[in-house]
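Input (CUTA protein):
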Amino acid sequence: EVVTLAVLMSPLLRGLALQLHSALTGTYIPGSSSMAFINCLNEQIAKDIARAIMDKKLAAQVNILPKSSALYFWKGELEESTEILLIVKTRTSKIGELSNYVRSIHPFEIPEIISLPIDQGNPLYLKWIEENVPRD
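Output:
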C-alpha cells in the first residue's frame, strides 16, 4: 500500500505508471492528446499552414473552419476582422514543437496558438491520433 501511495503522489511516477498501464491495457491516458487552435488571416494561409503542419507530421488531422468574425484589442484599439480557424489534433507532447513551428511560418506578429488537452473521446479515434503522430 505504501508503494502504491508513493507512486500516485509523485507526478513523474504517476505519469510513468499511467503510461505502463496504458501500454498493457490499450487504454487512453487522459490528456495525452490535445487540440490546438490557430487563427489565420484567410483560407489560403490556413491551407498552407495546415499542409506544413501535416508535412512535418506534427498532427494527425487539421480541420479548417470557415470564416468567422473576430473582435479583439490590438495596440489599445478595438479591432474587428474575419479569420479562418485551424483545429489541430496531435499528441500533447508535440504542442511546444507545433507552437514554435507555426510561429516561425505564420504571418501574424502574435498568432493565436492555444491548446486544450483531450480528456475523453472515442478510444479508437484517440488511438488513431497517437498512431499518426510520431513520438518525440
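The first strand starts at residue 33 and ends at 40.
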